Amino acid sequence: xxxxxxxxxxxxxxxxxxxxxxxxxxxxxxxxxxxxxxxxxxxxxxxxxxxxxxxxxxxxxxxxxxxxxxxxxxxxxxxxxxxxxxxxxxxxxxxxxxxxxxxxxxxxxxxxxxxxxxxxxxxxxxxxxxxxxxxxxxxxxxxxxxxxxxxxxxxxxxxxxxxxxxxxxxxxxxxxxxxxxxxxxxxxxxxxxxxxxxxxxxxxxxxxxxxxxxxxxxxxxxxxxxxxxxxxxxxxxxxxxxxxxxxxxxxxxxxxxxxxxxxxxxxxxxxxxxxxxxxxxxxxxxxxxxxxxxxxxxxxxxxxxxxxxxxxxxxxxxxxxxxxxxxxxxxxxxxxxxxxxxxxxxxxxxxxxxxxxxxxxxxxxxxxxxxxxxxxxxxxxxxxxxxxxxxxxxxxxxxxxxxxxxxxxxxxxxxxxxxxxx
Length: 422
Known about the structure:
Blueprint: E1 7-9, H1 20-34, E2 57-62, E3 65-70, E4 75-80, E5 83-84, E6 88-89, E7 94-95, E8 99-106, E9 109-116, E10 122-128, E11 135-142, H2 151-154, H3 158-170, E12 176-182, E13 191-194, H4 207-219, E14 228-231, E15 250-253, H5 254-263, H6 267-277, H7 280-289, H8 304-308, H9 317-328, H10 335-346, H11 354-357, E16 364-371, E17 374-381, E18 388-395, H12 398-417
Antiparallel strand pairs: 1-8, 2-3, 2-11, 3-4, 4-5, 4-6, 7-8, 8-9, 9-10, 10-11, 12-13, 12-18, 14-15, 16-17, 17-18
């Protein structure tokens, strides 16, 4: 029997009564969607802030997993430590504009869900396995972009988009995109973008998703970073990295592979981890579960034959910042593995772009990407009280792309130090 034969979808729940915890959690989600800003102490009601827009794509973050909803195609995906349903059709999904609800059954397990289509709200998935009590999974909803927590404070970041647009417009040889998300609350967790859906070749930025998939398995207790992997001479490639200068075969720990993949942008480490994780499919499953439609892992590092066949890795500024934001908020990783990942990024040794554009000593954690026709740098500015996630991506000649990235990076820094007054 094909796997698709085992999948059944239904939005009707009349056959069983929803347990109290499900109704309560769904009520909380709907209440949060409807709630307006609180009145100021003694000052009467404040002006009503705009309601956050609904999205067609949303995913629910709960401990150990995610539940992804695409309300346009009426599909869902459950991916957690205990399994992955793959992308499942639910043609009877109910969508009222701000809430998607329904029910699917895969291999005997039923997933009933109420997921708001607005970020920073609460949703629920009820998982019922054969001969087991229902399990309610309640968590935060993530959209791309996440709405600001404070739209009024968020308006203070908006002029930065105009400044970045000027840099992008001046970069005539390099189509460029930039996305910035406030992580500190100083700007109400606002996100801005210029050409945020630009989709250049990902280059080594794709290594961030490889790392997140590995660390997700660490969180699940499926692997330990102390585990060793036998690396053979056939797996060694050149380009960036340090492993290529060592003697093989040898056993290398997952920790060192992960660290080198980011710290030195090690191509050999990245390819070994792709093999260890089971190929491209698990990394692309991670990407799909987060509804990141511009990103794909389709070839290994320095696989020129695959590139000539048109098999290429791609991403966008918006997708990068969506990943970085979810990591920062510990929605896709635990706090421990989140800190480890950002620590690896802070050790980055390829520092000719973001760090070179900023004054000495400005704390950053970042990941570069370089190809003859692409230049990127993405990551975090860790300025106390002004932390942001950034993604600067370009296509076109690498040398001029490097300069565009530096100009974008400096523009953001200068704005954080001396923001434009409204």
